[in-house]
Specification:
Layout: H1 3-12, H2 28-57, H3 61-83, E1 97-99, H4 104-113, H5 120-142, H6 151-174, H7 186-205, H8 208-212, H9 214-226, H10 235-239, H11 258-285, H12 292-308, E2 317-319, H13 322-330, H14 335-350, H15 352-359, H16 363-386, H17 393-406, H18 408-411, H19 421-427, H20 430-446
Antiparallel strand pairs: 1-2
Helix pairs in contact: 2-3, 2-4, 2-14, 3-12, 3-14, 4-5, 5-11, 5-12, 6-11, 6-16, 6-17, 6-20, 7-9, 7-16, 11-12, 13-16, 14-15, 17-20
């Protein structure tokens, strides 16, 4: 009986060394720099959708800046929901949330189908609100799918997440504009390579705090190196306002159109599938496996963040897989670090000048750091697969086919061009298709009809089967 008070009192003390790393509160400087590192890793992914959609709508530069700031602001709020949590909302893992890129194509379709472009954003916002509310109530049912994610499935999905992100890093390394003359130039690739080398050297020859913020230091060094080559543009800082607040419904009250709502609901399903996979991946990395309750809470945060985002002129929010790579590489697992990053995002949304400081980092420099970050995610997936029993022939087939299906959008982008546009939204997400394939194949080979999972062992994928096997 005497042990109970001692246990509860130690659990309540956040300074005790036995506290799980996810729940640790680090020193202020370490918290700030590590949080800023997360912002730097995901900044380009957050600002790209509003820039693309805003340009399609025909927004002025001032309005485009406002829309971008609004998306940063709502990403910060969604990250707070996910990391800190309230009630049964939030996975309480070091999870960054921001604008999902999966919604870009259907949002552009909404813009193109709207006669009066001034109505396009209100229609998009209305569709996101409905999709977010429906997703919120569906979260506890969707989370029950966790039992279909054994290590052979989660390892495959985590690996796919890393592989699917690599083209993003390679695109950044070539430059910000594919139409520019210097896209893919030796200068851009050299800056990416130099940043990568700096990060690797810091990871190899430093220790402690410096080693953990190697990516942030690499971005700073890469940006300084880029100055003599004219690749660093300080114009956004000079032109940015000091204070700006995302006025609610700045672009008009939300409008509700059935076609747009259905389209965004499909995106929400894709987003929830990817978020589930991301939570499983992050749970493995931080050594706090995501169970059904955690996934339900995380999906509630995603969907509630999405439903509230249009109030402040933001788009649908989802987990950012690239930040999982940062957690895997730095081993800083504190959710409060990511919450600090969410604070920086809110600050950027309220202070455009602060946001422009991150925008100064050249895209090739981000690409160099991205190679390390995204590669770390794939490596974490491989580590999970090692524990998945790949000596079993069935599991080898599951991994082989699922990876092949998942990399189709990367290796053959036009593969699904003949499919309806709604289907392409799902099929063009390699993470979603690979995830569905892995779950389905695991059921077929390891569960349905009594399977052969326990008996058939191979030492390599193409080894011949024993003569006794029919």
């Amino acid at each position: 009986m005497a042990a109970q008070p001692t246990s509860s009192s130690t659990d309540a003390d956040p300074t005790r060394p036995h506290k799980h790393p996810v729940d640790e509160r680090l020193p202020a400087l370490k918290m700030a720099t590590s949080g800023l590192q997360h912002v730097a890793a995901m900044y380009a992914g957050v600002v790209a959708p509003p820039l693309i959609v805003g340009a399609a709508v025909g927004l002025t530069p001032t309005e485009l800046t406002f829309l971008t700031g609004a998306c940063l602001f709502t990403a910060g709020l969604a990250t707070f929901l996910q990391t800190l949590g309230i009630w049964k909302i939030g996975a309480r893992l070091p999870f960054v949330n921001g604008v999902t890129f999966a919604g870009v194509a259907p949002m552009i379709a909404v813009v193109n189908s709207t006669d009066d472009k001034s109505d396009a954003l209100p229609v998009i916002f209305g569709a996101v609100i409905v999709a977010g509310v429906l997703g919120f109530f569906a979260a506890p049912f969707f989370s029950k799918a966790v039992r279909f994610f054994p290590p052979v499935v989660t390892g495959t999905v985590i690996t796919l997440i890393g592989i699917s992100l690599m083209p993003v890093a390679f695109g950044w390394a070539q430059g910000p504009n594919p139409a520019a003359d210097d896209y893919g130039s030796t200068t851009n690739l050299g800056l990416a390579g130099a940043t990568l080398v700096v990060v690797l050297l810091l990871r190899r020859f430093t220790r402690g705090f410096v080693k953990q913020i190697a990516v942030l230091l690499g971005l700073v060094v890469g940006t300084l190196v880029a100055i003599p080559f004219g690749a660093t543009d300080f114009g956004p800082v000079a032109d940015a306002a000091v204070v700006g607040f995302p006025t609610p419904f700045h672009f008009g009250a939300p409008q509700f159109q059935l076609a747009a709502i259905l389209s965004m609901c499909v995106v929400m399903v894709v987003s929830m599938t990817e978020s589930t996979a991301d939570m499983l991946a992050l749970g493995e990395i931080v050594e706090r496996p995501a169970d059904e309750r955690t996934i339900a809470a995380g999906l509630r945060a995603d969907t509630l963040g999405s439903a509230l985002s249009p109030l402040f002129n933001g788009f649908m929010c989802s987990a950012f897989a690239q930040n999982i790579g940062l957690v895997a590489m730095t081993r800083i697992r504190s959710r409060y670090v990511v919450a600090t990053g969410g604070g920086f995002l809110v600050l950027m949304g309220l202070c455009p000048m602060a946001a422009s400081l991150i925008a100064v980092v050249p895209r090739p420099v981000l690409g160099g750091a991205g190679v390390v970050l995204f590669g770390s995610v794939a490596a974490s997936g491989i580590q999970t697969l090692v524990k998945a029993g790949l000596e079993k022939d069935n599991n080898v087939l599951i991994v082989a086919v699922s990876l092949a299906v998942g990399i189709i959008p990367i290796t053959a982008p036009e593969f699904y061009h003949a499919f309806p546009e709604t289907a392409e939204i799902i099929l063009d997400s390699g993470i979603s298709t690979g995830c569905v394939a892995a779950v389905a194949l695991n059921l077929v080979f390891n569960h349905l009809g009594g399977g052969r999972a326990a008996d058939d062992e191979v030492t390599a994928p193409m080894d011949p089967q024993p003569a006794s096997v029919h």
